[in-house]
Amino acid sequence: MSAKYYTQFILTDADYHGGNEFSGVVELNQPMDQDSDSKDIEAVLARNFDLNKSAVRLVSWSRLH
């Protein structure tokens, strides 16, 4: 079961300077666990951009119903 989230995040990788803040809907194959913290979410976003976890800084994240 997929889950959709509205997210805002900043990419801190050097390739994204000048256009590094993103927002929008992210759809995952399955919902994140209730006890997931921001580091888990940053890791998912980083994998999507093929970046290291440290290159993503989460601003906000909320599940859409």
How large is the count of helical segments? 1
Named CATH topology: Ubiquitin-like (UB roll)
Q: What oligomeric state do these chains adopt?
A: single chain
Structural class, from helix and strand content? alpha+beta
Total DSSP E strands: 3
| Distance between the first and last residues' Cα | 13 Å
Q: In sequence order, what are the helices and strands, one letter per element?
A: EEHE
Give an overview in words.
This protein is an alpha+beta fold. 17% of the residues lie in helices and 38% in strands.
List the helices and strands and how they pair.
Elements: E1 3-11, E2 21-28, H1 38-48, E3 56-63
Antiparallel strand pairs: 1-2, 1-3
Provide a concise account of the structure shown.
The protein has one helix at residues 38-48; strands at residues 3-11, 21-28, 56-63. By secondary structure, it is of the alpha+beta class.
